[in-house]
């Protein structure tokens, strides 16, 4: 079997396994009642149902939040902080996010653009392609650090570039966990800071969240324009 045939077989097998696993994952979430959760309280009850395997279920949900994307990892991180404490929730979430980022990166690298285009809209593709080409590493670091960028989509797009997996993984480890730590800390209330400091952090965190929600698109566009110069 020559090289093109081997690559075609690898591509086909990877695609089939990926589709099967995604189908099984979505089915398992549906059967377990996950999609019926409508609030943080519902999500907390859902995870607690699986005791003594709640930690494992929480890890699986955080991993799914990266691979399936519709599940908001910051929300589940806050619930994890409430259930398991800040640091347990953070370590589980960070491990799941790093692993999930690596998985989608490698899938995009093996399956190529046809796979990526199924998850990345044309609008996002056009928006990020140029800055990826010109300032890839800096852009990825900043995008992973700030909450208003679609991290999971960017992991897929990164897999189509010539960035090495080690460099990509380093950027993920250095930048992605910080927002997750804040979410876990809010849920776990385990940041041992005086009441006045907690109040200040709460106000600052709320302000950042509201600014990100209201002006996220503008902040993203401004940063992209600056990086394209």
Percent range for helical residues? over 70%
Measured distance between first and last alpha carbons: 47 Å
Unreliable spans: none
As a percent range, the share of strand residues is under 5%
Domain count, please report it: 1
Structural class call reads: mainly alpha
The largest sheet, given as strand count, sense and whether it forms a barrel, is: none
Radius of gyration based on Cα positions: 19 Å
Number of helical segments? 11
Averaging pLDDT over every residue, what do you get?
77
Strand segment tally: 0
Q: Characterize the overall form.
A: globular
Task: Encode the helix/strand succession as letters.
Answer: HHHHHHHHHHH
Write up what this structure looks like:
The structure is a single chain. With 229 residues, the chain is an all-alpha fold. The protein has one domain. 80% of the residues lie in helices and 0% in strands. The protein is built from 11 helices and no strands. Helix 3 packs antiparallel against helix 4. The longest helix has 34 residues. The mean pLDDT is 77.
């Amino acid at each position: 079997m020559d090289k093109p045939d081997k690559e075609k077989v690898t591509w086909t097998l990877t695609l089939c396994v990926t589709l099967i696993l995604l189908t099984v994952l979505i089915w398992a979430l549906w059967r377990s009642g996950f999609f019926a959760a409508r609030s943080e309280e519902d999500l907390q009850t859902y995870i607690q149902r699986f005791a003594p395997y709640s930690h494992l279920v929480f890890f699986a949900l955080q991993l799914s939040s990266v691979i399936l994307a519709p599940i908001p990892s910051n929300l589940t991180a806050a619930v994890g902080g409430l259930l398991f404490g800040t640091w347990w929730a953070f370590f589980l979430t960070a491990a799941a996010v790093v692993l999930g980022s690596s998985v989608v990166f490698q899938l995009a690298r093996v399956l190529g653009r046809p796979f990526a285009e199924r998850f990345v809209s044309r609008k996002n593709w056009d928006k990020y392609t140029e800055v990826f080409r010109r300032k890839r590493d800096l852009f990825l670091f900043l995008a992973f650090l700030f909450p208003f960028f679609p991290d999971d989509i960017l992991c897929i797009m990164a897999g189509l570039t010539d960035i090495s997996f080690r460099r990509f993984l380093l950027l993920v480890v250095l930048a992605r966990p910080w927002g997750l730590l804040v979410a876990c800390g809010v849920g776990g209330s385990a940041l041992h800071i005086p009441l006045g400091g907690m109040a200040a952090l709460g106000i600052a965190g709320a302000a950042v969240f509201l600014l990100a929600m209201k002006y996220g698109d503008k902040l993203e566009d401004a940063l992209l324009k600056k990086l394209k110069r």
